[in-house]
Amino acid sequence: MDVIWQATLASFSMLMTLDDRLIEVILLSLRVSLTALVIASLIGLPIAACLAFTRFPGRKIILVSFNAMMGLPPVVVGLVVYLLLSRSGPFGVFNLLFTPTAMIIAQVVLVTPIIVSLCRESLESMRREYHDALRSLGATAAQAISVLVWDGRFTLATAHLAGFGRAIAEVGAVMIVGGNIDHVTRVMTTTIALEASKGDLVVALGLGVVLVLLSLTINFLVYGVRSLGEAKVAS
Amino acid sequence: MTGASPLPLRLESVGLSRSGKNVLKDVTTTFAVDPPKTVIIGPNGAGKSLLLQVCHGLISADTGIVDWATPQNARALSRAQAMVFQRPILFRRSAVANLILALKIAGFAKSEWRDRADGALERTGLSRHAATPARSLSFGEQQRLALARALVVEPKVLFLDEPTASLDPAAAHLVESLIDEAATSGVKIIMISHDLNQTRRLADEIIFMHRGRIKERAPADQFFTRPENDLAQAFINGELLWRRRRSIFDGALVDDETCSSEDFNKS
Amino acid sequence: MIKFSLSVALAFGLGLGAIMSLIMGLAPGGSILNGPNKTTDSFITVASTTSTQNSGLFDHILPKFKATSGISVRVVAVGTGAAIRLAQAGDADVLLVHHQASEEKFVADGFAAKRYPLMHNDFLIVGPASDPADIKGMADSAAALSKIATAKAAFTSRGDESGTHKRERGLWASAGVDPTAYSGAWYRETGSGMGTTLNTSAAMGAYTLSDRGTWLSFANKQNMIALVEGDPRLRNDYGVLLVSETKHPHVKTRLGQIFIDWLLSENGKAAINGYKIKRQALFHTAA
């Protein structure tokens, strides 16, 4: 327990002094995970919409597969991406291994299934609910989708939060494809792993506290935007 | 009211099955501009809601013809009719935003949205709730909003599926007077009701359905005083028709303890 | 239907992306996909081991190298086996590990032209201050391990095919003991790096074989102390190798050679020998 208390103190002192290395590591974590989220959303939302609104042979299989992929172990994804990006691998020519780009690619693989599955569920249930009303009003397919996405924006936002949470908290994938290189591919989670392996448990846990605070802040921000939005609808 | 009326709507031998059961059988009838208010009644499972949905275009008939008078593309047709469901399906937005969305989908000019929406809210007594999230309204207010949304696009035909089923008498009364006003201003009302008193109050003409068929159609006063169909008579008397069937021997109506509501959907 | 789904959802995602790009454009470094910065930084990738990394050596000497040469060194620190595989795959330019046999095989297989002996340090057996197997001060490390086996005292092994692990296995063989028969009993294989294994030892009160570099800089010793050291069999030799451009034409041969030359130069040696923790030098270069 003493270590946890020391760690909490250490985390606050790191934050107060705006430790340079801490800032660098936080910014890289945010950059990698946010970029991965955006790309996963660009890929995942259209897939979710397709799955929610259209019926085609094999749809059930694809649906179940994405649900299953939500549980992909990050370390396995890291290994596979490493093998693909290695100079001896198919995409070696792009020289992406041990760069933030490789980390983003690995995290996109991890986050996309979450976006697809959670957004599909939300869109599908909203469609079931709105279907008759939208048809009765004579909405075109495009109008219908825009109503569904807009009305469902809070649930869709929560799905994105879940995806971001998965990305920012994982260490297995980014460690393997990034190599935890100082100043280049070292993010919060890999720093924590490194400090722990050096026996610097206080520092490791302190960084862990910072990571949790970061996650909490982002969640509160989204919650705040959501409340503002809901209030606006009523004003 | 602009544009030609899509009425009369002609149905010919319309049939529909669900899960292997015929739920609409050989329905042939015509809905014309007059009389202004047609009410469809009948016991549970008669196929009333399904008939309405087929007319409105929400589902397609398996057999038969559903023919509107003036040839219309899908868009014009949907703008010419509207429907109010038993439970109001409102969008997760404010009351006025719901109306504006309907106007937008129907293709009204953006400059007209606010005025038309405010007008509809006023006519339905919901002006002070314009900015309230639609789902926060009371049930009666929600149904009134659903009605406002249906009417704001100035349809020629308004379908209503038991619009006051879950409303308290005061709210039901309000909705009924709104329906009356709409009819007076030229909207053709085709409505399902379970409430015989409401039907007496509102209907100009009554269609009685039983087990997927139209059994009788008559002007309201004639229907209530001299129904031709004995099933209709039994229904008016408040008898539970789902336990009633015709004897296989002489065709008279008999009570059947072994009959259940599922038998309804058998052909 | 599909077209519309795609277009609307794409618009939604693009809008989101635009906002994110704005946020990230403001972050230091600028570009979103920060690949290797070709314009300003020249760099090489060095595959090395976690123990070397954890000792802090690289943090000490690499800035000096960058100052003189302008070359950044990106160290990927993994287990010895993984480091060698990385270099074989061509994912690193230089290999710096401490298992001579594996390094010589690397050369024999044609992945490097030669092995440059770089420096040495040593291993030591560490364990609980209570020393249940009574090995403190022994000169013969293999005999010490034998006593641990007899006493069935807890011993943690890295179990990860690292240089340290291979040395440990060699010592057990010299002692005539097969500890894997007792795996799970008193012989605990963590399958982890040195630091993690030390964490586990400290928590369990177990003996383990550690390199001096990691041991000296390890911050979680709890009640563990150094027990057996100085045995010549505990000497740990490091070699550095340049990955062959015959096998991997993309390797940064010129920059890599500059690095190796610097390591072997007087300046490089001074930097390595000058790295001390608590006034003890961790690594010793060849004279």
Q: How would you sum up this structure, described in words?
A:
The complex is a heterotrimer of chains A (235), B (267) and C (287). With 235 residues, chain A is mostly helical. Chain A has one domain: MetI-like fold. Chain A is built from ten helices and no strands. In chain A, helix 5 crosses helix 6 and helix 5 runs antiparallel to helix 7. Chain A is globular, with a radius of gyration of 21 Å. Chain A starts with a helix and ends with a helix. Chain B is an alpha/beta fold and 267 residues long. Chain B has a single domain, classed as P-loop containing nucleotide triphosphate hydrolases (Rossmann fold). In chain B, the strands form three sheets. Chain B has a six-stranded mixed beta sheet with strand order 5-6-7-3-8-9, sandwiched between helices. Chain B has a three-stranded antiparallel beta sheet with strand order 2-1-4, with helices on one face. The longest helix of chain B is centred in the middle third of the chain and has 16 residues. Chain B is globular. Chain C is of the alpha/beta class and 287 residues long. Chain C folds into two domains: 128 residues, D-Maltodextrin-Binding Protein, domain 2 (3-Layer(aba) Sandwich); 113 residues, Periplasmic binding protein-like II (D-Maltodextrin-Binding Protein, domain 2, 3-Layer(aba) Sandwich), CATH 3.40.190.10. Helix content of chain C is 43%, strand content 24%. Chain C contains eleven helices and twelve strands. In chain C, the strands form two sheets. In chain C, strands 1, 2, 3, 4, 5, 6, 7, 8, 9 and 12 form a ten-stranded mixed beta sheet that branches. A two-stranded antiparallel sheet of chain C has the order 10-11. The longest helix of chain C has 24 residues. Chains in contact: A-B, A-C.
